Amino acid sequence: MTPIRTDGLTKEFRLGLGRQRVVALDRLNLEVHQGEIFGFLGHNGAGKTTTIKLLLGLLAPTAGQAWILDRPIEDVTIKQQVGFLPEAPYFYEYLTAEEFLTFYGQLFGLGGAPLTKKVEELLEMVALTDARRLQLRKFSKGMLQRIGLAQALINDPALVVLDEPMSGLDPIGRRDVRDIILSLKEEGKTVFFSTHILPDVEMICDRVGILVRGRLRAVGTVQDLVGTSGVASVEMVVAGLTDAGIQEAERQGGKVLRRGAQVLLRLDDPSRVDSLVELVLRSGGRLVSLVPHKRTLEDLFLEQVKAGL
Amino acid sequence: MSRIIVIALNTFKENLRDKILYNLVFFGLLLIGSSILLSTLTMGEQAKIIQDIGLASINLFGVIIAIFVGIGLVSKEIEKRTIYTILAKPVQRYQFLLGRYCGLALILLVNTAIMVVGFFFILLVGKISLGSGLIKAISLIYIELLVIVAVAVMFSSFTTPTLSASFTLAICVIGHLTADLRVLGAKLQNELTKGILDGLYYMLPNLEYFNVKGPAVHGIAIAPLYVVSAIAYGVLYSAVILLISCVIFQRRDFK
Ligand SMILES: Nc1ncnc2c1ncn2[C@@H]1O[C@H](COP(=O)(O)OP(=O)(O)OP(=O)(O)O)[C@@H](O)[C@H]1O
Ligand SMILES: [Mg+2]
Predict the structure, then answer these.
(1) Does the ipTM surpass 0.90?
(2) B153 reaches A (C-beta below 8 A)
């Protein structure tokens, strides 16, 4: 079973009276695999939310098709197995956390003791048990994000779609959400989430897709995309280097930053490390430290965005 | 069906906690109560004034609640994006709309009932007998509210809260003047404008149809057949408007 598949999915918006066209999503072909955590990356305005809204039937595609759990997205019954957390969620102000989750459970046809139990479990999971009798209008932004996550899981979905689940959360909250996402994967669920918080993605995603201006620029595992060996740059701290030595190092492509008696040398081409180290030693310098910097998802992301703009 | 009920009950529950609603009902009751004071200022027709003001207050505050709560429940939900989570559940769009409508009808029923109880209390205090005309007038006021809520829901299904409120208010005002449109049309020579006015007459709700406050207060008999046909008209009109709303809502993008 394929949790999400899209074929040439396209959305155009028409703006204002001039009917100017904005292509928010351009022929997206994407396949999300069963049981994986898929991170959907993109800059502001890349088209992440648009994609998610299309998948959930909140927007109608201009062209193309999509399937959720092997059924066309127009079929409302697939939602029985989907959980969704929208971007910057806002919920019924006057309901308490408990009533809110119960209401949403009832929309799935749940009820009675199993629903009560499920609601309890979820409140526990998102650490809102103490706030269960509080009306949602009294919730903080982070609490709303948590209750939003809980409502997305009320039906024990096979596929969970989250639009920026970490936004508005403090570091503890973000770690909690990461843990919840990982536990969902352990239960065999598929998680598709959009974000621009890259360290989170590197930590938990099996695969990522990078969207730039409505176009999917890259898809794959973080390792495939960033490269396993990928050392992007090397930084070394050197003591006792003469002025002549510094000039020579600069000529060899090192970027120099003086720090009192020490010098920080940064080399963007890792293959020249050996010759630079040799140079340092030859000119009477002493190597204090040498740190290779791996290419991160952030580097890749910035490259892709730059290339796509 | 069960989803419509779940949404309707939730709508009802949520709104019972909204303070705006209580304030409106409170002012309605205040106005009804003030009729006693006002009636003492005038000689003679005291009973009529009390009944006049009472029915008018129930009508006015009913309409205000219908418009503002009605708009809030659909288009504000779209604006605030709550609807995203609802429609991401296995809920058809028409189920959402009808659930909202039924919930609103329930809220209006309760609010009207509270004001009616206040009104009856005042009648009791003023030692005015409760005629069947009053009951008929109040029933038709409620039917009018159902029509107005349907119109509010329809506008909410495709436009912003402010515009929906303005349009619905406009329809309410014009809805009481449709008979005049007809009269005006008959006086005009131009066939085209006459046609347009006639078209408007049939398209817009004839809210004056539901107004039997005058005869009720003056003790003039209201034929049961009239009441039945007015109810049938109101129910049918609302059903058509809701159907149109569902069709519009089904196609719209949630941006
Ligand atoms: N209703 C709309 N009308 C016109 N243009 C729109 C509409 N909604 C989105 N867009 C445009 O579509 C593009 C993609 O928007 P989208 O909200 O999908 O971005 P995003 O990747 O979710 O961004 P963010 O990270 O800021 O949430 C943007 O250029 C945006 O201006
Ligand atoms: Mg977004």
Answers:
(1) no
(2) no
